[in-house]
Structures are given as C-alpha cells and as structure tokens.
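Form 7-S
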Amino acid sequence: MVYNGKYYEVHEISPDYGIVLRRASDLYSSRRYYRQLRTYHMGKVEQSEMVSSRNVAGMKLMTGCCDFSVDTDGYLDMQDSQTRGSERRSEGRILQTKLSQ
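Output:
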C-alpha cells in the first residue's frame, strides 16, 4: 500500500488491533547509512561585528557575524545509523560551500 508517497506492508491483521502496517523501507537488512566528514573554517570575527554578549554560569557567550566555509572531504559508510566502529571511511572532495553575510 502507498500512503503519502511512502510504501507500507501489512504486518499483521488481528481483531484487537485491526490492520497493522509497517514501512516497507524497514525491511531492508542491508541498507547503508552515510555520514559526511566535514571541516568548518571560520574567518576572523571583528569586534564591530559582535551582535550580543552575556555571561552565563561564569562563561562569556558572544554572538557575532563572520564568513565561514565548509569542506566535505568524504563520508563514513556505515551498516546502521547508530553503531560507531563498523564504518568504512571513503574519501575524496565531495562539496565545498562558502557562506558569507
């Protein structure tokens, strides 16, 4: 069955619960998960670009504006979305983004 663009499979039919569906994508046991490896580069924050400043629990928190860029140098190819240590590292420049104000 398809509902709202997603595929579902009948998991169970019972008089107590009626028809129980589950997402068809949950049935794939060899589904791969990918997590990007990113490096963030921040430009120098000038005093004139500071927006706010406050003290919280003995720490000075300052908010300001600066240019920054993000490099994605590869990704982790993982067997599931939570387990760390089973990933395979794949490298190669994928994306470079520069954001400025």
